[in-house]
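Table 4 source record.
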Amino acid sequence: MKHHTIAIESVSLHYVEAGDQNTSRPPRQTIIFLHGFPEYWGTWHAQLAYFSKDYRVIAPDLPGYNLSDKPQQQSFFAVPNLIQFMAKFIQSVASQEKVILVAHDWGGAIAWPLTAFFPQLIEKLVILNAAHPSIFTREMITNPKQRQKSEYIHELIAPDGEAKLTANHFQYLKEKIFAGMREGALDEAQQQAYEQVWSQPGAVNGMLQYYRAMPQLAPSEKATTNANGPVVAAAQMKIPNIRITCPTLILWGEQDQAFVKQNVDGVEEYVPNVRIKRFANASHWLQHELPNEVNHAMDDFLKTTKSI
């Protein structure tokens, strides 16, 4: 792994890169991996090791995370701005070709609309447990269980959210956010690496900015007030029209504590060229729990689907 930093709109982004850079043969296609909350580039360690044999692989720390800059303005983390920002990152690190984009969780919340609005940059899309925005909004409107599963977000955007996450050596992140992760999925070194990532100055605040700036959140059924964050009554939510034309693979752990299984149902309406693989006994943290299965499913998809 080679570590790099690149300035995009005066924001320094840290990323790792691997893959043979032999100049005597044609360059390998680039796969870009976008992590989610509360992760960093290292969440993809198994995928980077596997795919660096045949591809150029790149995994950034998203803005606000780990070794990347942590902009103070909440407006920076609004999804439309994040889409533009990450599109410029892709253009900067892979200017000569379309890339394969792989994303999980919040990385997926960026990747879905990025692929829709910048189709000239993306050849194929792979999503791990990140609900399509149109389907997720539908579920928030119609499915009380999804609203219940999203209740934790109110704790994250509360005034004491940062203090809650950092207390007792990040106990909240370990026990509540990583809830459902299969025991043993993270070894001791990986657990220590996550704690170091969260300990970076400003990192917890940076991670929470994504939730504070998220487009729509149903009111809390527990809190006495909903003054904080982008709260919209479910009946008033608007379903975005996010349509993807490139070949897409969705890998979905069905024991996800943040998303109901129905977030995959009907996605073909918005993503007609889609392949879906469900994992009945895996959680939201699919790439940690089943790294080999994820790698093989991705590899098969990349080798057997033709680009448009």
